[in-house]
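Each field is listed here:
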Amino acid sequence: KAFLLCGVRSTDKDNKTDPTVGPDKPGRLMLRRLAKPNTWDTWTVEAGGLIGDPEAVSFGGSVYAFYQTASGVNMRRIEVGKTDLSMSDPTILADDPTLVPTVGVYGGKLYVFLWNGATGAVKYKVMNTRGQFDKEYPLDTPSTSPVGLTTDTINGDAVLGLAQDQDKTRLRRWQVRRYRAVDGKLTAVGGPDWVEGAD
């Protein structure tokens, strides 16, 4: 099944109004499931208070949603049935609402990254076997954008996409770095490689 996690505001049907969700324009958090072509099942995850783009991942048979609110970055575990859904209470992963969450799965573990747009610093947490994020690690490099995680299916590396200023004239260039994990902690093993090359 295809799922869509999104933020909406009451102005979304007004084509003259910017529908962006943000700290000064909070919205609702919605989960949609494609039931059949052009037909979606729709549920409200949060009735209000969403202040940024949400992230989600399918992991262990559940949907895990990560999203910013005025009180911080929240997570919910969502179980979707045939016609309804159940979900956990929100868990606050960080009390700083400006941190931008991104999420990925590597080595059978769920990772959530928290990017600080003011400093470029990135922290990440790894879900334990009890479904909790009890450890936090700093990423070994900053980024000028939120980061993305995937797995190299050939050699098993964790591949992290990020952005950095290469020099004063080439700002926010995309970059790839490679990692391996020991007990969830990521250790650099390759890169950085600039997307489209160093030149």
Observations:
- The radius of gyration is 18 Å.
- The chain has a mean pLDDT of 94.
